[in-house]
Design brief:
CATH superfamily: Gcn5-related N-acetyltransferase (GNAT)
CATH class: Alpha Beta
CATH architecture: 3-Layer(aba) Sandwich
Number of domains: 1
Number of helices: 5
Radius of gyration: 15 Å
CATH topology: Aminopeptidase
Number of strands: 8
Shape: globular
Helix content: 25-40%
Length: 161
């Protein structure tokens, strides 16, 4: 797997077909993951996931899979998407097993640094569900500020200093 960057406990690699079983388990975990990363939907099939990952495997994609240092256990994915000039939306998904271990905070801090310093971004924004206060707390702790709110979503951003 091609390492792109790392942080204290995480190696960030390009998406790979080798991780399709882990990706599928994560994105189809309705209770712990899927309900926070998108609208309700049918479960993804292996074919769906293979097609999705194949589209993310080129060098222009800014989706990265996270592996735990030392064990290479799959943690989840981060992605910079909806990139327009020097802005991008940031998203994360962590497997249920790897939640509540500090990986989300570590990934957010390191990927914001990567986005600003390596991708040349000046603004990173994200959307969090109103009913996900734990995630909102992590984003605030990492410097994100709320700039808009609806009944369902909170829009947050951080700008390069």
């Amino acid at each position: 797997m091609e390492k792109v960057f790392e942080s204290e406990n995480i190696i960030y690699v390009r998406p790979t077909l080798d991780l399709v079983p882990e990706y599928l388990e994560m994105v189809n975990d309705i209770e712990n993951v899927a309900r926070f990363i998108g609208e309700s939907r049918e479960l993804y099939t292996e074919e769906d996931e293979i097609e999705y990952i194949r589209n993310k495997m080129d060098n222009t994609s800014t989706m990265y899979s996270m592996l735990e240092k030392g064990t290479n256990e799959f943690i989840g994915n981060i992605e910079f998407f909806n990139r327009v000039f020097d802005e991008a939306e940031w998203g994360v998904a962590l497997t249920a097993k790897m939640q509540n271990k500090g990986y989300g905070t570590e990934a957010l801090k390191r990927s914001v640094e990567y986005g600003f310093n390596e991708l040349g971004l000046k603004r990173i924004y994200l959307i969090v569900y109103v009913n996900n206060p734990r995630a909102k707390h992590v984003y605030e702790k990492c410097g994100f500020k709320e700039f808009k709110r609806t009944d369902v979503d909170i829009f947050m951003e951080i700008e390069k200093e």
